[in-house]
Write a structure and sequence with these properties.
7 helices, 227 residues, binds zinc ion, 31% helix, globular, 18% strand, alpha+beta
Amino acid sequence: MEAKTTGLLMIPLEKIYSADETEYSQSSVRKRLEAFFLANVGLVVTREQLLRVARDPRTGKEPENWHQRLSELRTDAGYTILSNRDWKALTPQEYCLASIEQRAIASKRIRPSKATWKAVLERAGHACEWKEDGFSCQLAEGAIDPIGGGTVRLTPDHVTPHSVDPNSDPSDPNQWQALCGRHQVMKKNFWDGATGKVNLTAILQAAGLEQKREALSFLKQFFGETD
Ligand SMILES: [Zn+2]
């Protein structure tokens, strides 16, 4: 596959769609997605294809967390999976694994030291520190998430995204915050470091049909439009 390199990213020269309809039977969502991407290097794959691959091959059940697994292929496995943020020819529903190369930095992701994480949790009062537009999450470790369901587990997040500042200091509590799982996903997938705001359009694009309808009806009501 021919490609040109812009900055650090390999961008394919041509937009060629994958016609892959293979059944992937690997044991986890992440493994199926990885196998699918590796079989379609340099090709454009759609959200629909990813959903199909992510689906449990035995039960046919569509996992809710496929987006998080996709995000892990980037952040933990170090794959360069292009989206329309990196390659403007892609629509927001399209992705492309540019090469089989895995970035080495991925395995060396810096985490806070034990003492730092303890200090962060104490500062946070053992609750999620996510804040936006005056709203503060405050979900406590071990509580039940009223929106996402499941038990809240707080994990460390570097306040500045790694892509902006790779020199995270594991010993400085001010560089770290405690986030619940839902807000970790929110930040990874939908936080725009450039504007310091949630990327609302990306959230709506990723939402299910029913949630899109709810949002539309909310906006219509908000702006005083009748159906
Ligand atoms: Zn939270």
